[in-house]
Amino acid sequence: MHTQKIIVSAMLLATTSTVALADSGMSFTDRAQVISSTPIYQQVNEPHRECWTETVGGESRSGDRSYGGAIVGGLIGGLLGNTVGQGNGRTAAAAVGAVTGAMVGDNIGNRDSYGYQPRQVERCRVQDNYRQVVSGYNVAYRYRGRDFTTTLPYDPGNTLTLNVNATVAQNQGNNW
Questions:
Q1: Confidence of residue 101 (pLDDT cuts 50, 70, 90)
Q2: Which of 100, 50, 108 minimizes the C-alpha distance to 76?
Q3: Helix (H), strand (E), coil (C) string for the chain
Q4: Residues 52/121, Cβ–Cβ less than 8 Å
Q5: How far apart are CA 71 and CA 98, in angstroms?
Q6: pTM of this prediction?
Q7: For the segment 6-38, what is each residue's pLDDT rounded down to a tens digit?
Q8: CA atoms within 13 A of residue 12's CA, in its CB half-sphere
């Protein structure tokens, strides 16, 4: 009888320690079969800037002309021409000097007001560059006869390693 008490006590102790171990939980890794792995695509824009150089020129601005250079040039040319020659030659030289001076004075006075003046101008624009990138995978897997789904940042291949936690379910009736 004394031996039976020891055996019953030992069994009770073993049952209590097993329940305590199960209550604290148990973790292990296991493998599951991957049923499908579908990429998840995301559209990403990586814009880049395109620049180039163009040659552009000024436009004719004949309405903005100044006549001061022509007048001053004509006077100076006429005075210089008047110092050359004698008689009718002097008059002709003054006339030629006045016309030449007026032309030179007009060109100098209106140098920036007309004509084609090319310059280099940099032009830029932003060009969109859309592309599809894989941002993850929708994975379906089978573990112990049940199907599950999850999203992973990588393609797992044919099998998936799982972390499994076993704990005792609450609200159980005694099945003894």
A1: confident
A2: 100
A3: CHHHHHHHHHHHHHHHHHHHHHHHCEEEEEEEEEEEEEEEEEEEECCEEEEEEEEEECCCCHHHCCCHHHHHHHHHHHHHHHCCCCCHHHHHHHHHHHHHHHHHHHHHHCCCCCCCCEEEEEEEEEECCEEEEEEEEEEEEEECCEEEEEEECCCCCCEEEEEEEECCCCCCCCCC
A4: no
A5: 9
A6: 0.43
A7: 333 333 333 333 444 445 678 999 999 999 999
A8: 6
For the record, the structure tokens of 150 come out as: 């999850």
Collect all residues with Cβ–Cβ distance below 8 Å to 88 and sequence separation of at least 6. Answer: none
Say how far apart CA 159 and CA 91 lie, in whole Å.
111
Sign of CA dihedral 110, 116, 121, 123: positive
Residue whose structure tokens are 């004075």 = 105
Burial class of residue 116 in the structure, from the number of CB atoms within 10 Å of its CB (0-12 exposed, 13-18 middle, 19+ buried)? exposed
Q: Report yes or no: 35 and 138 within 8 Å, Cβ to Cβ.
A: no
- Please state the φ and ψ torsions of residue 111, each to the nearest 5 degrees: -55, -45
Distance from C-alpha of 43 to C-alpha of 37, rounded to nearest angstrom: 20
